[in-house]
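Hi U.,

Before I forget, here's the chain from the pilot set. I'm dumping it here mostly so it's searchable later in email.
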Amino acid sequence: MKLPELSKSFWDERHKCPSKSYLDVSFKFLIFFLLPSFASGCATVAVSALGAGAGIGVPYVISDCADRTLNFSYEEVCKITPHVLKKMDIKIVDDKEIENGKRVKASTKNLDITIDTQRVTQRATRITVNAKKSAFVKDKATAEEIINQFEAMLAKNKKSM
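Structure:
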């Protein structure tokens, strides 16, 4: 089967500079998906929404903060926080109340860690972990493991009751 030859005018027409609509789409992508990731420490656009895997049930946002809602009361999660950090050899630096919850700042030799806990319901608590190596480099593996340790320790305490 022989393909029809394309005229020079067709070639010129197809390979012009991008059309305005193409630029509009590119600009909108930049505004709505890329810029919000630089706007805050924990952006709300999930990487999994863009097609990447989250791994072990802990979704990550573009900025690599881990957050998850745990099926335990706010009081249980706050009570277990120092034990989780001590088990991982992470030192608590600051502990203060924030709007709708509590913020714990902790550190290791190489990381600054922030753990926010917020009451969702009487039996559900949202936890957000941000582990930073520097202003631009974050450690999502450690953030995930901290949440995994919360779940394991809370489940262990629930069984022993």
